[in-house]
């Protein structure tokens, strides 16, 4: 049992490092696009930033599941790994928020960006569209997870049930943390 949990710790360390690299890449691309906006040019890497953030989000969800199995197994590094993954999650939320505010909702329009948008024939997104889209994505996430929980199989043997229970607890914790942020 301890050996299996130690393999989970090793996996968490490796994959959290990969996730951090993914977030670094997304942040670097985002900052480059923000500099382009400030210079009056159109962002070039928005789709890539969004793709990197989505990949990091998926990785963090899996990491939280692994952390939960450590905590369920009362591994001594469970809390440390939880804090590490939680910091990655906070960084993801921070980068995604900056992305939504700066790129998706459209940065303040300068004369140069207005001319660029007009000559390109592109419609500038309304300020309310990005937050609304973000809320729609969050609602879709909630609905998808509700469906997964409602229709999910728990398994036929104890280890499988424990694994699914750990994943469910991780999801429950993520929802409770998100709820607390929404209520602030």
From TrEMBL:
Gene Ontology MF annotations: ankyrin binding; cadherin binding; structural constituent of cytoskeleton; structural constituent of muscle
Alphabetical GO biological process terms: hemidesmosome assembly; intermediate filament cytoskeleton organization; wound healing
Cellular component GO terms held in the UniProt record: focal adhesion; hemidesmosome; intermediate filament; perinuclear region of cytoplasm; sarcolemma
Pfam family, one: Spectrin_4
Domain of life: Eukaryota
InterPro entries assigned: PCN-like_spectrin-like_rpt, Plakin
PANTHER family linked: ENVOPLAKIN (PTHR23169), PLECTIN (PTHR23169:SF20)
Protein name as it appears in the record: PLEC protein
Species assigned in the record: Rhabdornis inornatus
Lineage summary: Eukaryota, Metazoa, Chordata, Craniata, Vertebrata
């Amino acid at each position: 049992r301890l050996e299996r949990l130690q393999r989970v710790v090793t996996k968490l360390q490796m994959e959290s490092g990969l996730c951090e690299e993914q977030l670094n890449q997304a942040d670097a691309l985002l900052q480059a696009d923000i500099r382009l906006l400030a210079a009056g040019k159109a962002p070039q890497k928005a789709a890539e930033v969004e793709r990197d953030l989505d990949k990091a989000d998926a990785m963090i969800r899996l990491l939280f599941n692994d952390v939960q199995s450590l905590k369920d197994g009362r591994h001594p590094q469970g809390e440390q790994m939880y804090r590490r993954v939680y910091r990655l999650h906070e960084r993801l939320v921070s980068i995604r928020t900056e992305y939504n505010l700066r790129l998706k909702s459209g940065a303040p329009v300068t004369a140069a960006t207005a001319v660029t948008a007009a000559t390109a024939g592109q419609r500038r997104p309304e300020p309310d569209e990005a937050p609304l889209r973000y809320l729609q994505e969050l609602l879709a996430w909630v609905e998808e997870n509700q469906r997964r929980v409602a229709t999910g199989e728990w398994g036929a043997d104890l280890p499988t049930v424990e694994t699914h229970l750990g994943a469910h607890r991780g999801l429950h914790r993520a929802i409770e943390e998100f709820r607390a942020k929404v209520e602030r």
